Structures are given as C-alpha cells and as structure tokens.
Amino acid sequence: MTRKPLRRIMLGTAATVSGIVLLLALKPHSAPAPALAHAAVPASSQPPSSSAPKASGGGSKASGGSKANGGGSKASGGAKANGTPRTSSPQRTQTVTGDTVQTDYGPVQVRVTLVGGRITGVTALQSPSGNPRSEEIASYSIPQLTREAIAAQSAHIDAVSGASYTSAGYSQSLQSALDRAGG
Known about the structure:
Blueprint: H1 5-25, E1 93-97, E2 101-103, E3 106-115, E4 118-126, H2 132-152, H3 164-181
Helix pairs in contact: 2-3
Region (Disordered): 32-106
Protein name: FMN-binding protein
Domain FMN-binding: 104-181
C-alpha cells in the first residue's frame, strides 16, 4: 500500500486556509442600536406617577447619573395604572452605588435606581476601557446586562457571551448596591 503524502499535505493546507478565511469573515459584535446603547429604562418599568422622577439611563462614564432623584427621597403619590387613587404611602426612590469590582480588563461599577424596592434602572459608572476591544465588548454587554437585571429584578443574571469578566464584575457590583439598599 503506497502512501500519498503530497495529497495529505494539500488537503491539510486547503482545510487550514478555508478555516482561516471563514474565521476572518466573521464580523465582530456590533454596538446595539442607539436607543439601546444608553441602558434606557423600559416604559413598563417606570413608576405610574407622571410627577415621579425618571431613572437616569446612560452607559456613559461621564454622565454619572442625575442627582435629582437622590437616595431615600420620596416620589409623589398619584393614581395607580388602573386610575384608582393610592391608599398606601408614596413609593420610595433610592439610588445606590455598588462597589468598584476590579476585573482582568478594568474596573466595573454600577449605580442602581430602585422605586418601591423594584429595580427601574442601572447605570454603568465604570466599565473596562483599557483598549479598543475592551470598549467594544463593554458597549454591547453593558446594555444587555442592564436589560437582564431589570427583567430579573436581581443580580442573578446570565453572563454575556464574550464578556465573562465584565459580566461577573457587573453582577458583583450590582449585588453590592442591592445589599446596601436592603434588597
């Protein structure tokens, strides 16, 4: 039985080249749509009162959130969603900052806004930004983590694929903020 080393070499080379071409053809994650890039609070999560302050969105490190709805302030009363007047006391609005969590790619820190004990917004105060790749990962993972935290109403959220360290830091910082808020 004769061996055909040239054929094996050619097939191996062709398979390697094909794999490299396919790998290079993959597009990196793109940033979410502008409406989602700022970790906006869904309308269904807003307090029913139109005079209550809105949660400050934003994923920008420079924004830092609004101080207008400072921690512990009382939101005004109003009517429930079905139009009946409230009989209980107004819902309490809290804004609490979590610990800064150091990851392999940079610090992660969040600020959570709670209305009546429910998470209505999460703002990333710090996210990995040491290089363009870290910034790209943070740009798509932070808004997704924020949506998951609001939906789950806790820090027990799924990690974003490709952003394991950022996801872990986000979850830890969020948990520390919730612990401080008493939730």
